[in-house]
Glucosamine-6-phosphate deaminase (Candidatus Mediterraneibacter stercoravium), 243 residues
Amino acid sequence: MRIYEAKDYQEMSRKAANILSAQIILKPDCVLGLATGSSPIGTYDQLVEWYDKGDLDFSEVRTVNLDEYKGLDRENDQSYYYFMHKHLFDRVNIIPENTYVPDGTEPDSGKECARYEELIRSMGGVDIQLLGLGHNGHIGFNEPDSSFARTTHCVDLTESTIEANKRFFASADDVPRQAYTMGIGTIMRAKKILLIVSGEAKAEILARAFFGPVTPEVPASILQFHSDVVLVADSAALSKFSR
């Protein structure tokens, strides 16, 4: 694992964008695994800035997103499909047909999860997977559990995740209770993983993920077993790391 320390969120975002842009330049038709939430917004903004300057070309890039709320259609402004178009896809020259997000409107969980898993396989896998870190150690929507989920699946969101996400909705009652997400096994098959973490509130769980035991009770701890993980975090998030 390589660790890059940034002084703040802005520097973290720029360092992460550097890594993603290098992947695009080295392999123009790469498959990017993308994440949503507040953590990657600055990274996407930086990629857009470099695209606007003519430094990046997304015309051959393909993307697969980690997850999507079950029950939200694409036009819902809290869907991750909407999020990705707002923050990245509609701002660069990526071909819309080359961007993939789980279909939250598909009621048949088994059907949708199998379709998405096969889609990723058919693309040759993910070249670099961008991840954030939940306050309870989740990656994607893989919540603390008794075992690691191997493939794309439908999850029941924990109360802590619902609480963390309610700020994006009118109330906690409006937050979906289920989501489709890549499984831990799916994530671990990515050739490279880029984890971005910001803020003192994530310091404790980040330290547990990388210095504690590998356990499904801290899903991100499985990343200790990946051969190519890059962690980009600000000083606050790294404050509990052993030096």
